[in-house]
Write a structure and sequence with these properties.
By secondary structure, the protein is of the alpha/beta class. The protein is 47% helix and 14% strand. The protein contains 9 helices and 7 strands, in the order βαβαααβαβαββααβα. The strands form 2 sheets. Strands 2-3-1-4-7 form a 5-stranded parallel β-sheet, sandwiched between helices. Strands 5-6 form a two-stranded antiparallel ribbon. It is globular, with a radius of gyration of 17 Å. Adenosine monophosphate binds next to helix 2 and helix 3.
Length: 218
């Protein structure tokens, strides 16, 4: 049976790290709208150029652009057995759009997505964001304050030079949290009322949270 997982949580709640691991274990593709948007920005496409202004301000990219990107991605062959969606939907409006996209893709097959909410106090998350570095080659994420990295500034796994995302600054991070609270947080109630939400405690070590995620998606 096709498996559709949707992960929701505040920025830097660990969704990305956990999804990469789950994707490897389940062989399901990790569909991450943030990365798809950054790739579009890098390619210099029209959609990417429009998106840039919003990403730089920590705001949501217009829904038509994100919907087009995500629809195309979910129709690719590697999504035939399912996918793990990270970063979409990010508003109730996007959740309705996702319903329509999935209706079109899945028809009456009876597939029901499961939504996992990463519950975490937001106190230290801005600090996590400004200390975050990522590997442009393999996508691994590091925290320069809390993790010991083998060679400073380089990826432990593929040795590429680590980068700081342009929107991982204090100012943009604050704007991203504001966007999260006003537009994304209402999704929790929305999916909860539909009986599709599973909450996991996203505090604790990467391994502890992963154990909870494995249980939640069974
Ligand atoms: P992320 O990598 O998930 O933190 O996303 C980085 C940025 O990409 C966000 O701050 C938004 O500007 C944009 N973005 C990612 N996903 C979406 C989405 N579903 N809808 C609108 N904008 C998005």
């Amino acid at each position: 049976m096709k498996k559709e997982l949707i992960l929701v949580g505040p920025p830097a709640s660990g969704k990305g790290t956990q999804t990469s691991r789950l994707a490897k274990e389940t062989n399901l593709p990790h569909v991450d709208t943030g990365s798809l948007i950054r790739a579009a920005m890098k390619s210099g496409s029209e959609a990417g150029n429009i998106a840039k202004g919003y990403v730089e301000k920590g705001e949501l990219v217009p829904v038509e652009i994100v919907a087009r990107i995500i629809k195309e991605r979910l129709q690719e062959n590697d999504c035939n057995n399912g996918f793990i969606l990270d970063g979409f939907p990010r508003s109730v409006e996007q959740a309705h759009i996702l319903d329509d996209i999935l209706k079109e893709i899945d028809g009456d097959s009876g597939v029901k997505p499961k939504v996992v909410y990463f519950e975490i106090p937001i106190d230290n998350l801005i600090e996590r964001i400004v200390n975050r570095r990522s590997c442009p080659k393999c996508g691994a994420i590091f925290n320069v304050k809390t993790m010991s990295i083998k060679k400073e500034g380089y990826c432990d796994f593929c040795e590429a030079e680590l980068v700081t995302r342009a929107d991982d600054t204090q100012e943009v991070a604050e704007a991203r949290f504001n966007t999260y609270f006003t537009q994304t947080a209402p999704l929790i109630d929305f999916y909860d009322k539909r009986g599709e939400l599973v909450k996991i405690d996203a505090t604790g070590s990467i391994d502890e949270v992963y154990g909870k995620l494995q249980e939640a998606v069974k």
